Amino acid sequence: MLFLIILILSFASGFFLPWWVVAIAAFLAALFVGKTARQAFISGFGAVFIVWVVLALFKSIPNDHILAKRIATLFHLPSWWLILVVTGIVGGLVAGFAALSGLLVKKAFEKEEVLDKQM
Amino acid sequence: MKFIKAFFSIAFTLALIWLLQTKHGPVPPVGRFLSPADGFWQNAESKHILASRTLNLPGLTGKIIIKYDENRIPHIFAQNEHDLYYAQGYVTATERLWQLDIQTRSAAGRLAEIAGPQALEIDRYHRRMGMVYGAENSLKEMMAAKPIREMILAYTDGVNAYIHQLGPREYPLEFKLLDYAPEDFKPINCAFLLKLMSETLAGGSNEFAMSNVLKKFGANATNDLFPDYPMREDPIIPAGTKWNFKPLPIPKPSGSFLAAMNDSAKRVVKEEGIGSNNWAVAGSKTANGYPILANDPHLNLTYPSIWFQLQLSAPGVNVYGVSLPGAPSIILGFNNNISWGITNVDADVLDWYQVKFKDDKKNEYWYNKQWNKTTRRVEVINIRGQKPLTDTVIYTHHGPVVYEDKSKTTAHTPGFVPIGDALRWIAHDKSNELMTMYILNHGKNYDDYRKALTYFNAPASNFVFASRDNDIAITPNGKFPLKYKDQGKFILDGTDPADDWHDWIPFDQNPTVKNPPRGFVSSANQSSTDQTYPYYINWQFAPYQRGKRINDRLSAMRNATIDSMRILQTDVYSIRAQDMMPVLLKYLDASKLDKTQIAAYNTVKSWDKNFAINSVGATIFNAWWLKIYNMIWSDDFAGKSLRDNYPSMDRTEKLIAKEPNSKWFDDTRTPVKESCTEIINAAFTNVIDDMVHKYGQPGKAWQWGIVKKMEIAHLTNQEALSSGNFASGGTGSTINALNNGHGPSWRMVVQMGPTVKGYGIFPGGESGNPGSFYYDDMLKTWQNGELKELLFMQSPTEKSSRIKTTLIISNQK
Hints:
The complex is a heterodimer of chains A (119) and B (813). Chain A is mainly alpha-helical and 119 residues long.
């Protein structure tokens, strides 16, 4: 559920809002529907990793990856798809930690016993 | 505890975002740069381009139709000239916005604003040598001429129309890499661009080094080693051409000059062989009976490409060629009636004056037997991440005192600038070069060509011309100061009015020739004239080899076609080898060589003197010749003050061929006395041993195209955005002068006639975006030495299978 919400929010925001909006999306989503720290981080990371890779491919495939190849060289990477992976990881990390933060804020305000049960 | 955990997690996430949103040294903001929404992925252009598109822009008076061909070269059709130059500005900005921005910043001394302190010294130099001062002077002149003012304002509006519709995610890649935003284009940027051309082509000087040579060796040796006319020459205006004017009186040399030239008185290295070619062949020598014109200007090749190719058409004008991004009109090109091209003259239009200040306040300087007031110009340089620097430059009536004392210099100060001297430079003067281009773009005949040239000040250029009326002509043209002979060969005396620039050579007395009997005109940066021309233009020009080869080939040519011109433009035959190989081989004693050296000797002996890609002989000759050159001069001309300012290769050839007993052959650093024979033999064995060490036994690794490095570098010098090294033939002294990143930045051949036909190619592409298919799509054709037929349309409705897309721009209400 959390994964899907972050996926949809960051996909939609990617067309018109600045890049760091994915962090807000992941944070808020985890705040409301997050369950565990592990699940929040993995959902945030995985969703934005996928969204960024897909959006990047959306641009790069009709470009025959000519720019991705040049930027990979610029970052001293041997192949264009590695810059794609790095892109996914950077977006993923930001969203993962944002989701984790959302979840931890949620926990901080939750009642004690609910937390105990889950632990 | 849970609150602390949450707090730390949020703090960590925010820190991560900040880290990824900020530029760190040369590294762009990584998060923003990599994000598919904002970053570089947005600059990946799709290969699917809409076949037709419409657009509304503010400030147009009619409808603009732009047809793009298969190389994405725009063919602009407007209903009036305002809209035409507006459209030129708009399409130039769509393809080259970052280039427009960075070259203006470079000329204006504003690189540190975006690059930080590391660019500060370049900025200071540009400010202190008066680039801004010169651009401001030129702008006044440009804006005073109505057609030019309207042209510049329309072009500026066109560029800004593009900038204003641009969001941050559409910024060109380099803005994202360097993390800054484009700013509005201003009319003065056109002036900056022209000053930049002056700096590139007429901004170097060796007067400082020459003055030190004079001090060290005295006048006799200096005049002998640095003569005012080369041994071998084939001047631009054919030797023997009569001057049909009465020259002005030549100014008298100043007292200090005469004293320095008297031996009893005690008291930026230019790169040789870099230049350009152009020529025009009369109808009597061509297959179709009309003239053919050719031009290939050599520059330091860069990405984005130096030139932007396009066709400009409106009622009253229809012209095709290349433009400089940042200036309206076509700079090199043709229309239905005329064609023109340029090469650099290399006139002596930059001089240094020793200034005598009254005291350390430097408020007054001695000139014309009295104290005169200096003026001051304050330059504020903004620096990224630091407080702005305020730099005050002192001006005398000559111009800026670039570095008035040692305290103003740093380790990065250009070494050719003498300390304490004022700079007099043609680029400081008001000028209106765009008027020349405007008239040529609209030109119909020889008279228009002559009229156009009167407006061109700097950088002085050899303007070649051909017309449908069967006229050909060439004019080394620019604003030339009227000087005494050699005035400016050395640093001048700033206290003496006799050393000032006195007047100008009248325009109609600039060297020129129309329809000479030999049936062609040409230039390759060599001496403008023979020694009968009454005025001094410079004491040193590019060596004669390219000019000689062009003239030899054109003299022999009959029934010339486009393809004969193409073959000549890519010719790699070495006149230097033709002149020097027999002499060098005469000195070389083959009996003392070992087996490998003999093999190399046989290769170079049987070499056909072409600097071809696969030639091993070329590699050996080149290394051998450079070694000889260095061995002769490096002992006498070493040291910072002489700046390795060696006598010319022409003078060296004369020394070897005619003065084998000269004292200059002796290496003063060794106890023994070397002779010409010893130098030439030692150079050969040393070079062959070095090459075996570097490349192994003679073979494929010795081929010229493999040994010589050649690359087209991106303006940021980022390897990832550059062409990479590629094999190429030619060298500085061959017509196809590919050398050390320099080379033909545009090759053009135009066949005049009832229907004009243009052919051309440049190394790169129309787009400045490394993420575009049109960034370097023409490189391969250029590397292969081929030309493309230029699609010169007579109307927007003309059908052509080469037209791929159409853009229609109408006025936004």
